[in-house]
Automatic annotation (TrEMBL):
The chain crosses the membrane at residues 20-39. Keywords: Membrane, Transmembrane, Transmembrane helix. This is DUF4381 domain-containing protein.
Length: 152
């Protein structure tokens, strides 16, 4: 056997000054993890307000038979204004119906007319006590659910 090779000790990698590279890698991983966490959190936060509106509309739908028109439209208009504020990015709660109507052009075509009709019926029912038919109440509730991303 004449093929004996020298066995040498292991050669160290890096030479002992690895801590700056490891600290940089840890910092990069921390910043990347924070960015992913914030992005996922923002996605959940954007979806959450519409869930609250849909839940409120579900409660209103369940109790609508026992409510008079004034109470029904007070609650419905508040939920619709909240949904419009989320969709259009406006402070709709502080606006009158006349101020809101021009901004409805930011909604999809299938929602503009039903939401405008809902808002047009809500003010007389809420403030003047005008009676609204059962067909209009169910159409307005369906329009509100479509606006909040529920049933269509």
């Amino acid at each position: 056997m004449d093929d004996i090779r020298d066995i040498k000790e292991p050669v160290p990698f890096g030479g002992g000054n690895d801590w700056p590279a490891l600290a940089g890698l840890a910092g990069l991983l921390a910043v990347g993890g924070l960015a992913v966490w914030r992005w996922r959190r923002q996605v959940r936060i954007r979806a959450r307000p519409f869930e609250a509106v849909r839940a409120g509309l579900g409660r209103l739908e369940a109790s609508s038979a026992g409510l008079d028109d004034r109470t029904f439209y007070f609650e419905l208009a508040g939920l619709v204004r909240e949904a419009l504020g989320l969709r259009l990015g406006l402070t709709v709660e502080a606006m009158t119906t006349a101020e809101i109507l021009p901004h409805l052009s930011g909604l999809p075509e299938r929602l503009r007319q039903p939401v405008a009709g809902l808002l047009g019926r809500a003010d007389p029912a809420r403030y003047a006590g005008e009676a609204v038919g059962a067909r209009d109440r169910s159409a307005d509730l369906a329009a509100a659910l479509a606006l909040a991303g529920g049933r269509r």
